[in-house]
Amino acid sequence: MNSKTGIMVCGHGSRDTAAVKEFEAVAEGMRARFPENPVAYGFLEFATPIIADGLDRLRAKGCEEVLAVPGMLFSAGHAKNDIPSVLNRYQAQHPDMRIRYGRELGIDPKMMRAAGERVRAAMAGAGDDVGPEETALVVVGRGASDPDANSNAAKVMRLIWEGLGLGWGETAYSGVTFPLVKPALEHVARLGYRRIIVFPYFLFTGVLVKRIYAQTDAVAARHPAIEFIKAGYLNDHPLVLDTFAERALDILGERNNMNCQLCKYREQVLGFEAEVGLPQESHHHHVEGIGTGAVSPPAGEQGQPHGHDHEHAHTHTHHPYPFADHPHGPVTLTEKD
User: Fold this and answer.
1) Which residues contact 85 (CB under 8 A, 6 or more apart)?
2) What does the mean pLDDT of the chain come to?
3) For residue 258, what pLDDT band results from cuts at 50, 70 and 90?
4) Residue 118 CB partners (closer than 8 Å, separation 6+)
5) Cis omega before residue 70 (within 30°)?
6) CB of 240 within 8 A of CB of 202?
7) pTM
8) SS in 3 state form for the chain?
9) What is the model's pLDDT at position 81?
10) Quick one: which of 51, 53, 59 has its CA closest to 10?
11) Which of 36, 50, 217, 297 is the most exposed place for a label (fewest CB within 10 A)?
12) What is the pLDDT of residues 146-192, one digit of tens each?
């Protein structure tokens, strides 16, 4: 990367000074990963420096190009509209400096591993007297008026739930959309699990994280027979910082952004790490070409017995599903279900 290329980390901002300090740690992490390039940060609101101030600092250091990375987990209004608006306005005022905008952190294998470590740490701190199958997980997202961003929070929950083999999983939100934290926790409390882990899928602390923990305490007081565990938020986990760095490099075109980034055969997806690099082979050759009509022999075998045993006596080579003995499945639904 050219030494005249700067990196700008764009945050939302918070009235909570601890959250601002934690965001500063992201900038420090980026400086450690890009020692030859100036790094600055700024906020949309509630905190200083603002984004324009950070860009000014990069200009003062001689940067001719800026890779601007949104400090956002998902792409909703702030990442899609607010930050680009600020960057475009600055670009119009300073045409001598090229500003290139990156994408949000998103659902990434590294982010999921970081999230899994936060949940695992909460489980370890609570003790091993309650097994994972007796534990429910509630992932709390920020909540947005953008259903795409909200659906990503649900996907995060599913990946952690299945990756760790927990008993149940639900998604809640701190605001804007539904379900909110209290009704979601009350719902899960009726499911009969001995332990409920509440994991705020947030980058930094702040008013909302504190409210999530406070509401967890309130629901826990009404259900003393259930153990409620508050997992830590993501913060400056090294894998989170690695993802920030990768988003900057994405702007330079050094990474293919195909939607196979969570393919368990290509990346270490939480809970399925052992399947990376397995041969890609079809296990459905025995039903290939079979539709709803009469079954025809495969091409080249018309009129010839193909000797295939439809009782599945042939050998499959599926990699074992890590939670095949999970108490809630997995089995395929039958007509009796």
Assistant:
1) none
2) 86
3) very low
4) 199, 231, 232, 233, 234, 237
5) no
6) no
7) 0.82
8) CCCCEEEEEEECCCCCHHHHHHHHHHHHHHHHHCCCCCEEEEECCCCCCEHHHHHHHHHHCCCCEEEEEECCCCCCHHHHHHHHHHHHHHHHHCCCCEEEECCCCCCCHHHHHHHHHHHHHHHHHHCCCCCHHHEEEEEEECCCCCHHHHHHHHHHHHHHHHHHCCCEEEEEECCCCCCEHHHHHHHHHCCCCCEEEEEECCCCCCHHHHHHHHHHHHHHHHCCCCEEEECCCCCCCHHHHHHHHHHHHHHCCCCCCCCCCCCCCCCCCCCCHHHCCCCCCCCCHHHCCCCCCCCCCCCCCCCCCCCCCCCCCCCCCCCCCCCCCCCCCCCCCCCCC
9) 86
10) 51
11) 36
12) 888 889 999 999 999 999 999 999 999 998 888 999 999 999 999 99
The pLDDT value given to residue 257: 54
Topology (CATH) of 5-104: Rossmann fold (3.40.50)
Give the residue-averaged pLDDT of 242-255. Answer: 90
Beta carbons of 330 and 320 less than 8 angstroms apart:
no
Phi, psi of 110 (to 5 degrees): -70, -40
Q: Length of the chain, please?
A: 337
**Residue 54: both structure tokens together:** 């950070």
- Asked if 5-104 and 109-230 have one fold, the answer is yes
| Domain over 109-230 is classified CATH 3.30.559.30 | no
**What confidence category does residue 264 fall into, taking pLDDT thresholds of 50, 70 and 90?**
low
Q: How confident is the model at residue 285, as a pLDDT?
A: 45
CA gap 131, 205 in Å, rounded: 29
Domain residue limits, the chain:
5-104, 109-230
d(CA 21, CA 14): 10
- As a whole number of angstroms, the distance between CA 143 and CA 180 comes to 9
pLDDT exceeds 90 at position 111: yes
Q: Residue 336: which pLDDT band, with cuts at 50, 70 and 90?
A: low
| Residue 271 near residue 322 (C-beta atoms within 8 A) | yes
Q: Is the pLDDT of residue 67 over 60?
A: yes
